[in-house]
Design a protein that fits this description.
The complex is a heterodimer.
Chain A (H helix, E strand, L loop, with lengths): L38 H9 L11 H7 L5 E6 L8 H8 L1 H15 L3 E7 L2 H10 L4 E5 L8 H9 L14 E5 H13 L5 E8 L4 E8 L4 H7 L9 E5 L6 E3 L11 E6 H4 L11 H5 L6 H10 L5 H9 L5 H5 L6 H9 L3
Helix pairs in contact in A: 1-2, 4-7, 11-14
Chain B lengths: L13 H22 L4 H24 L7 H13 L6 H16 L11 H12 L1 H4 L15 H8 L5 H6 L5 H6 L11 H13 L6 H16 L4 H6 L3 H8 L10 H21 L5 H33 L2
Helix pairs in contact in B: 1-3, 1-10, 2-3, 2-4, 3-4, 3-5, 4-5, 5-15, 10-13, 11-13, 11-14, 14-15
The chains are: A alpha/beta, B mainly alpha.
Chain lengths: 342, 316
């Protein structure tokens, strides 16, 4: 049973508002005259596009591998809890998203575009008006519904084999923000130098979706919005609650930064206690794996069995096991080490 | 440990789980105190404090750590007090609590094979103080030779009203003759116990798979043996065990499949021991058998899942 990731923040950033506090960049790229299988990946390399859903995988390589795919999936399911940047981009920058989606579909030869979003009736009805030629597929609000594997599972009706990529099934799954970047470059000649993200400090009730230049230090965002950040009390999370990492004040905003969250240190601190063998990690794993047994095998170095390798390959380190562990055992960190044993 | 994602915690913390379970156990204890023996709840709290003290002393000596609130051992001790006859003297209880905490519970922390501590305590009492374990009341008749009150009702063809069976208060001539209440203090109120079990599952304190598999297979096996599933379900320690003992996470398997298999083993085992043998306290043997199987069941679940994934990745 998948446990719902509950966010008890007062209110999440409103996806209908997307601010651009920085001056818009000038045209830097001539754009693209003809979109086809040869020109498009080269164009994506030129504008410097990597997967902006968080993976950072070069999009040109992904497009090249997906040539011949029949369906483009626009991934707006918004994986990380407490972040609404995908929805904000979908609602506020439909022109660029649609342009990017049509260009990608044309390049790989896809005839069908599916817009994957969370199951929110109001959002879906708004999106139907904005994207009339896209088919809309709704997904659960439970983390990690936006993971590529789970999207594919719903679309194909069966769980894809461990290590399989969507293009093997005729699908190209692209994040909304990546498609927005493609559209921005095609329409306005602006390469990937902007990053839409959610900036939030839940303890003060501050939530905002903003577009910032890539490379701007986090310090500048914090000071511009006058957030009362205190390193002794708070931590900065780059990219989210579940799969994000702790960032320093002088770290830059990257192309893969989904969000900058200023969280209270005491709520994020995990004090490990002995396992009570409750099985919460097993019950919560979205892929039905056995995270604690996997972690035990990594710790003991028993990583040669076929069963271990099968389970370890399937795991995509979503972190649900760590989040639900009543003993705060750092399971996902151990599983990360386990990935190196494959 | 450094701060690393996930930066969010979901569900209950392990430190509070035993406290929640203990609170739940206090409900039937309070009802028993109100209806039958006012001192029982205080004795139960006393035994819980005794269990906590035993763990505190152990951690001080062997782990050189100061831990004042050891709720796990406190809960186990309270569970033992609720699962043995109300007439159990103090000294056997003291020995049983010290044995289960010092010899079984704490030395086995971190091992894949864990036993349900309360059941170990009950087994200790059954072996060392067998007479006290089956002393269910103060009979006014000359001789009563029976393992559990349930057996007495059964052999005498005594018809319990549903209300009595569900809520525990037995009126009529039988009470006057034998001064009996059906079973040990903890197991007297099946409906209340069922509600508490649902609450604990909803709070995420206990897993539902093992107890549900236990109850279903227990009923099915009892029915196949030709006995009344409902009578067996609502009498003796069946519901009490499902809510507080079979659902014990520490001694049950972690995997979903393992939990169901463990519930089946305990359910079938309990029903078969009740029907075919003369052993008393069938649940003790069944639960300990399930606990013994837990590491193998977890390992089997892991191997089967891994193999299934490997087969899928090889498929075209």
């Amino acid at each position: 049973m998948l446990r719902r990731v509950k966010i008890d923040w007062a209110d999440l950033p409103d996806p209908r508002n997307l601010e651009a506090p920085y001056p818009p960049p000038e045209r830097l790229h001539p754009g693209l005259n003809e979109i086809n299988a040869e020109t498009f990946p080269a164009f994506l390399d030129e504008i410097g596009l990597v997967g902006m859903g968080g993976s950072g995988f070069p999009t040109a390589a992904k497009i090249s591998a997906a040539l011949g795919a029949h369906t483009l999936v626009v991934n707006g399911v918004e994986c990380e809890p407490g972040v609404t940047i995908d929805q904000a981009v979908l609602l506020n920058q439909a022109l660029w998203v649609a342009a990017g989606a049509h260009a990608s579909a044309k390049a790989v030869g896809a005839t069908h575009i599916i817009l994957a979003v969370k199951n929110d009736p109001d959002l879906v009805s708004e999106l139907r008006g904005l994207y009339p030629d896209f088919e809309i597929a709704t997904f659960s609000e439970k983390y990690p519904a936006g993971a590529e594997k789970l999207i594919l599972k719903k679309l194909t009706g069966k769980t894809p084999p461990p290590g399989a990529r969507p293009h093997q099934f005729g699908y190209l799954v692209q994040n909304v923000v990546s498609l927005r970047a493609i559209g921005r470059a095609l329409v306005d000649g602006v390469p990937v130098i902007e990053r839409p993200l959610t900036l939030a400090m839940p303890s003060t009730g501050f939530y905002k979706n903003i577009i910032v230049p890539v490379g701007v230090p986090i310090r500048e965002l914090v000071e511009r919005h006058e957030l009362p950040y205190d390193p002794a009390v708070h931590i900065l999370s780059n990219s989210g609650l579940m799969m994000g990492r702790e960032a320093a004040l002088d770290d830059p905003v990257e192309k893969t930064t989904l969000s900058i969250l200023v969280l209270r240190r005491d709520t994020a601190w995990r004090d490990e206690r002995p396992c009570v063998r409750c099985g919460a990690c097993d019950a919560a794993c979205p892929l039905g794996l056995n995270p604690f047994t996997l972690a035990e095998r990594v710790r003991k170095g028993k990583t040669n069995s076929a069963a271990f390798k099968g389970q370890m390959t399937e795991c995509f380190l979503c972190g649900v096991c760590s989040a639900v562990c009543p003993s705060d055992i750092p399971l996902v960190q151990t599983l990360e080490k386990g990935k190196q044993c494959l | 440990m450094s701060i690393a994602s996930p930066f969010i915690k979901i569900g209950s913390r392990s430190s509070a789980m035993a406290a929640w379970a203990l609170l739940a156990l206090l409900v039937p204890a309070a009802l028993y105190s109100a209806l039958y023996d006012a001192s029982f709840i205080w004795r139960l709290i006393g035994y819980a404090l005794l269990g906590m003290s035993a763990e505190t002393i152990y951690t001080l000596i062997f782990k050189r750590k100061r831990r004042l609130v050891c709720m796990g051992s406190g809960f186990s001790a309270a569970l033992l007090a609720a699962s043995v006859p109300n007439s159990m003297p103090f000294l056997p209880m003291l020995f049983a609590i010290l044995f289960m905490v010092w010899v079984v519970k704490l030395p086995m922390v971190g091992l894949p094979l864990r036993f349900n501590t309360a059941m170990i305590g009950r087994l200790f009492l059954m072996l060392v103080y067998p007479a006290a374990v089956v002393n269910w009341g103060t009979p006014t008749a000359d001789v009563i030779s029976t393992a559990t009150p349930q057996e007495l009702y059964h052999s005498e063809g005594f018809q319990l009203e549903w209300g009595e069976l569900l809520f525990g208060k037995i009126d009529g001539v039988w009470e006057g003759l034998f001064l009996l209440v059906p079973g040990s203090p903890g197991e007297t109120f099946p409906v209340v116990l069922l509600l508490l079990g649902g609450l604990l599952c909803w709070k995420g304190i206990t897993a539902w798979r093992t107890p549900v598999a236990f109850l279903l297979t227990f009923c099915a096996t009892t029915w196949l043996c030709g006995d009344s599933p409902l009578f067996n379900l609502f009498s003796a320690a069946t519901i009490f065990s499902a809510v507080f003992i079979v659902s014990d996470p520490v001694s049950s398997p972690m995997s979903k499949g393992g939990q169901i298999a463990c519930g089946v083993i305990i359910g079938v085992g309990n029903a078969l021991i009740r029907h075919f043998t003369y052993y008393t306290e069938a649940i003790v043997y069944a639960v300990l058998l399930g606990n013994l199987c837990a590491p193998a069941l977890d390992r089997l679940a892991f191997e089967l899942r891994g193999r299934r994934l490997n087969r899928r990745s090889r498929a075209p």
